[in-house]
């Protein structure tokens, strides 16, 4: 009996995905670079599942039914190229490799082209939901050719999370579309996580609420319009006490946030494609600055911020501010995906993207239903803002968000994501920006020319004599 599918890379994601696939009735062959990890996995986690270990690449490939379908769940970057290089000598035309890691989309495009020359099919697939999602049903974002997708569609549909709108998997689009969408998913995730963290900071420092009280509020919010995976886990985190000290664990965790790159890549892509993802970029910088712990400690002793305190805020106003931040984080991400789809000819259906984010993934939330409704009303509504319902939604929350921002500012509490969302909104909804002065400055020092509001054409002024 040959295995239906193979998986390489038995770290947290790989192990759980294998168990998920096997529990759906498929036979899975597994391989990991370090044999010890494979042995431990088989001994400790595999019970009655149909999982076949292999300890050489050759045995692994030979244990698969043809055309072979191999999922890579290895560290992104060079390890993916290394694994492809090791597999290639044993593969035949028509076999399929699926990269389920967080690869950079440009790498996926390159690998697609290289493998097409060898007759090997390739999919770049975003997998969201962490280890729990991988085991119980992730959100899957595969991209590449339709032929390749057709080979594994049934398996992917079977293992994906399910909502009332179907399995959280769709053919996302051509080329690196799947990895691009997963990358932006993570960019949105950065922005929402940072927004929640800023509201938490304001609650503890501005309103003097205890961690437990914040946990209760987050729990309440999770039953309302902020219902989402990230709100749910944040409420649980607030209630988690350290076994050793009995204190809330979150209070004992060092305030230095790590990153693996997808937030940074989203921002880089946004800069390349010209999409103003203010809060996504600010959230990456928030993690960067968090890393300067010693510098922050030193400077915090030097600077005493005697600011005039703004009016305090209510819990309801905080909820509204966070809700607006969620909405605007999705807005930035969907716009970025649309722009990429146009530029790279991905052919992405944005409604499908929103639908497959409804279950399994880290950014799943009740708000996605509202966004789907807005996009269904008008497919051109890429920022969601061109709609009366969106206008009403924003207007009902804007005053609270500004109050929250002012309160945070007056306490010198940084709130880059909340402010990034507000600046994104204000910039997009302002007729007259001061870019006229920027243009004049550019023309002054570099003869870059400018346009005028009162007549067509391109103009330049000799602002100062050259000699
Ligand atoms: N963790 C998450 O929540 C999450 C969520 C979504 C997506 N992802 C993505 O999914 C992928 C797997 O993530 P992970 O957290 O499970 O594991 P990981 O820590 O990113 O990677 C570890 C795995 O990669 C293998 N590996 C590393 N270098 C290799 C090389 N040069 N050749 C062959 N294999 C190599 C390791 O094998 P050895 O045992 O031999 O070291 C191990 O199986 C990553 O791309 C990650 O970004 C992760």
From TrEMBL:
Record's keyword annotation contains Oxidoreductase: yes
GO MF annotation terms: NADP binding; phosphogluconate dehydrogenase (decarboxylating) activity
Pfam families in the cross-refs: 6PGD (PF00393), NAD_binding_2 (PF03446)
Pathway: Carbohydrate degradation; pentose phosphate pathway; D-ribulose 5-phosphate from D-glucose 6-phosphate (oxidative stage): step 3/3
Keywords: Gluconate utilization, NADP, Oxidoreductase, Pentose shunt
Domain 6-phosphogluconate dehydrogenase C-terminal: 178-464
Binding site for NADP(+): 9-14, 32-34, 74-76, 102
Tree of life domain: Bacteria
Enzyme class: oxidoreductase
SMART domains reported for this sequence: 6PGD
Quaternary structure and partners: Homodimer.
Family: Belongs to the 6-phosphogluconate dehydrogenase family.
Protein name as annotated: 6-phosphogluconate dehydrogenase, decarboxylating
Organism: Pseudothermotoga hypogea DSM 11164 = NBRC 106472
């Amino acid at each position: 009996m040959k295995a239906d599918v193979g998986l390489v890379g038995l770290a947290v994601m790989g192990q759980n995905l294998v168990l998920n696939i096997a529990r759906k009735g498929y036979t899975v062959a597994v391989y990991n670079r370090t044999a010890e990890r494979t042995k431990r996995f088989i001994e400790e986690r595999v019970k009655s599942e149909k999982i076949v270990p292999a300890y050489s690449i050759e045995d692994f490939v030979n244990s698969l039914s043809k055309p072979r379908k191999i999922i890579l769940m290895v560290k992104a970057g060079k390890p993916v190229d290394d694994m492809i290089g090791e597999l290639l000598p044993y593969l035949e035309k028509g076999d399929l490799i699926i990269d389920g890691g967080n690869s950079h989309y440009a790498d996926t495009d390159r690998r697609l082209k290289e493998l097409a020359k060898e007759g090997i099919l390739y999919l770049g697939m975003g997998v969201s939901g962490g280890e729990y999602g991988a085991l119980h049903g992730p959100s899957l974002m595969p991209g590449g050719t339709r032929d390749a997708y057709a080979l594994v569609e049934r398996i992917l549909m079977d293992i994906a999370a399910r909502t009332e709108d179907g399995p959280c998997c769709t053919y996302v689009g051509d080329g690196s579309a799947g990895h691009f969408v997963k990358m932006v998913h993570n960019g949105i995730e950065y922005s929402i996580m940072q927004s929640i963290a800023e509201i938490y900071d304001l609650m503890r420092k501005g309103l003097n609420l205890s961690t437990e009280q914040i946990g209760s509020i987050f729990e309440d919010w999770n039953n309302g319009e902020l219902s989402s995976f990230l709100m749910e886990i944040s409420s649980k985190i607030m209630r988690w006490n350290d076994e050793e000290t009995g204190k809330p664990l979150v209070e004992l965790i060092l305030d230095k946030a790590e990153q693996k790159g997808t937030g940074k890549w989203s921002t880089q892509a946004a800069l390349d494609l010209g999409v103003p993802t203010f809060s996504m970029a600010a959230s990456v910088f928030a993690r960067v600055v968090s890393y300067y712990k010693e510098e922050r400690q030193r400077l915090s002793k030097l600077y005493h911020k005697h600011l005039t305190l703004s009016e305090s805020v209510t819990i309801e106003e905080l909820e509204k501010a966070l809700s607006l931040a969620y909405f605007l984080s999705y807005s930035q991400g969907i716009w970025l995906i649309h722009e990429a789809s146009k530029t790279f000819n991905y052919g992405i259906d944005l409604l499908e993207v929103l639908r497959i984010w409804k279950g399994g993934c880290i950014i799943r939330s009740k708000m996605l239903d509202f966004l789907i409704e807005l996009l269904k009303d008008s497919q051109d509504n890429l920022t969601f803002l061109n709609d009366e319902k969106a206008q009403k939604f924003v207007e009902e929350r804007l005053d609270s968000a500004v109050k929250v921002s002012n309160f945070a500012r007056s306490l010198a509490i940084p709130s880059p994501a909340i402010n990034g969302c507000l600046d994104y909104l204000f910039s997009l909804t302002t007729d007259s920006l001061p870019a006229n002065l920027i243009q004049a400055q550019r023309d002054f020092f570099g003869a870059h020319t400018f346009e005028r509001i009162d007549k067509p054409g391109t103009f330049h002024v000799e602002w100062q004599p050259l000699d």
